[in-house]
Design brief:
single chain; alpha/beta; TIM Barrel; 8-stranded parallel β-barrel; globular
Length: 294
Amino acid sequence: MNKKELYGMGVALVTPFHPDGSVDYDTLIKLVDYQIASKTHFLCVLGTTAETPTLSVEEQRRVRQTIIQHNAGRLPILLGLGGNCTQAIIDTLKTDSMEGVDAILSVVPYYNKPTQRGIYAHFSAIAEATELPIILYNVPGRTGVNMLPETTLRLARNHSNIVGIKEASGNIEQIEQIIHQRPAGFKVFSGDDGIALPLMHSGADGIISVIGNAFAAEFTQMVACALKGDYSQAETIDNRLRPMYDLLFLDGNPAGIKALLNLRGMAENVLRLPLVPATDATVEKISAALQTII
């Protein structure tokens, strides 16, 4: 398969909604155009930031198709495809069209809390069911279980199409262990904007970003500078954006980034239950930080 390689700054795209809660496909297209114009390195579609659990199966398909058709091959597409039922993921891979998808992002199973042996067996089964490249996604704060470096490295060594990981454990020591012991070609992406730069300094390959939804050109430039070794310029950009990193998560994700997108006139500040918009106090803090950036 001739799939585009993922590197650098990938944006975890939001799903914009109309005030009535329906998906705003016109704004979705505008957000894709913004990423393309900003020279973002790749798009992460239907991930956590997209509020994917609140979308119906049909809405998920239409969001995916809308982005793929409008993108028209200009940026690589990383498609979120995970869950806590291994067979359901395999069935989707076998029945849904993956045309236009360059790789899938698959999260550690949540809620049922598998052992490390179970996590390994889960991802092994997925890897054997598809030829698509797979990026693992470790986010224990959401899944309730941490995929240990030993499990990640075993998967990377034993399955040629498991090509990387989005590491959002927040444990820099754990992530650096993966970076230093990974097989050749296995990529490590930060799952947290705030530690992307130090991780790239340690050898990480980039970031799957939240703030990149609203500051795509700036964050892409920061990542590009770091990857070519210009840490001075990267730090300058990182320091400019840093006041926003924690604020975007005060009321959870994507409440913060949707508030920021709204303040920038890019999307409505609408989420689907059980998620709710950021509080007025948080929006005020985001607005104040925004004035120091723009």
